[in-house]
Amino acid sequence: MASSSTASSSAQLGLGLGLGLGAMGGLGLLLPADREHDPELEPCSPPKGVQRLRGAVQHYEWGSRGDASLVARLAGETEGRPCAELWMGTHPSAPSSLASDDDAAVSLREWLARNPTALLGRAVTARWDGDLPFLFKVLSVAKPLSIQAHPDRELARALHALRPTTYRDANHKPEMAVAVTEFRALCGFVSVQELKDVLRTVPEVRMLVGKEDIAKLMTAKEHDGGIGVRSYLQSAFTKLMGTSKEAVAEAISKLKSRLNAENKIRTFTEKEQLVLSLEQQYPGDVGILSAFFFNYVKLSPGEALYIGANEPHAYLSGECVECMATSDNVIRAGLTPKYKDVQTLCSMLTYKQMFPEILQGVLVQPYVIRYTPPFDEFEVDRYLLPQGESVTMLAVPGPSIFLIMTGEGEIQADGMPDEGVAKEGDVFFVPARTEVKLHASGPGCLQLYRAGVNSRFFC
């Protein structure tokens, strides 16, 4: 990707652009010189070009409703049902379809299968068997999602073979969330010191974990190599999550009573406030107590969080753009009425104790911020174009999906089936080796997001 902007915008963002261009080598971006020698960009039989897509809405109960739901607004839904997720991709659970009148019944997966090399590029076709390697989503979270983790490839294959109706594919599911609004989540285990503080100050957790595991954790050191601490943490967490419903309900009741009494003499911590909120939404659920074990993460708009395989997490509230490997495998253990596979989740986790990395994104050209997680399948670009400004995405070796979040503009690219008008909620599939020009023509800012294969994959 390289920049194309007006002289005035380049001058305004000269410093940032210099930083962005200086980092391009590390980001695996394709400069014009690269295009002359890259076999991925050599001409081939041209496919049918850029396509408008229809995404699929998932109406999970934790989703926001009506005008409060970004997903509902983007999808044009007015029925008042909870609109939790908008899916853009080829996963069979909710595949996208072509939006043109001629191909309205054609799924994106079917269309890609007609000419995968031309549409996805040689390298992507070879690596991912002719399928789109990423699934692009928008989430509107009104109620906390489950305490969950996603399996690595080996475990995903085993679970899919064992219970294909529950674990619907054999792929792993690393993922990344880019906050559109203030976004809250639980992610990963707290540090050794914070865990010791929990065991000292939360008697209801101590009651369920037991003296033996508490003694081991209280004597653990922060920097002992992690192996011992992880085994102690796994034992304590597994014991907590496996506690009977009756014992959990009793512990939560005691927790509420104690906090209500202490509220008269002190202010609650953020984690205590969160736990009480979870109790109102999922009364009697063990996930309420497990929240004490996890990092409480707050993202501001434009910040991103990525989550690897076998890492515990739960999204709590807010709206985000999410991208992941093409999978829908979720192993749950709390804060949900759905099927819980506690034993599998407790056995699969890495039990790393660290605060997750928060990505701020890197300026790769004027008005374009890139979020690059450590996964081959995907990256996400955020475009914020002021009225009257333009930007160009040069042809890259892999496919992209564009989502117009707010504003109006035009998209110019080879093979556009219409005049290229772009407005809120529009979704476009861009084949490999296709240059795209974007122009903000409406009032206000044109905000859009692009999902594509990680640029580092092509290095």
Automatic annotation (TrEMBL):
Leader sequence residues: none
* Swiss-Prot/TrEMBL keywords: Isomerase, Metal-binding, Zinc
Q: Which GO terms describe its molecular function?
A: mannose-6-phosphate isomerase activity; zinc ion binding
By its UniProt entry, which Pfam families does this protein fall under?
PMI_typeI_C, PMI_typeI_cat, PMI_typeI_hel
> What binding details are noted for the cofactor?
Binds 1 zinc ion per subunit.
Has keyword Iron-sulfur?
Answer: no
Record-annotated Phosphomannose isomerase type I helical insertion domain positions: 209-293
Set out the biological process GO terms recorded for this chain's protein: carbohydrate metabolic process; GDP-mannose biosynthetic process; response to cadmium ion; response to L-ascorbic acid; response to zinc ion
Active site location: 332
Functional pathway: Nucleotide-sugar biosynthesis; GDP-alpha-D-mannose biosynthesis; alpha-D-mannose 1-phosphate from D-fructose 6-phosphate: step 1/2
EC number per UniProt:
5.3.1.8
- Residues annotated as binding Zn(2+) are 148, 150, 175, 313
Q: Show the GO cellular component annotation of the record.
A: cytosol
Q: Which reaction does it catalyse?
A: D-mannose 6-phosphate = D-fructose 6-phosphate
| Domain annotation Phosphomannose isomerase type I C-terminal: ranges | 371-415
Task: Check the record and name the NCBIfam families matching this protein.
Answer: manA
**Family assignment?**
Belongs to the mannose-6-phosphate isomerase type 1 family.
Q: Which PANTHER family match?
A: MANNOSE-6-PHOSPHATE ISOMERASE
Q: What is this protein called?
A: Mannose-6-phosphate isomerase
Q: Which organism is it from?
A: Hordeum vulgare subsp. vulgare (Domesticated barley)
User: Upper taxonomic classification of the species?
Assistant: Eukaryota, Viridiplantae, Streptophyta, Embryophyta, Tracheophyta
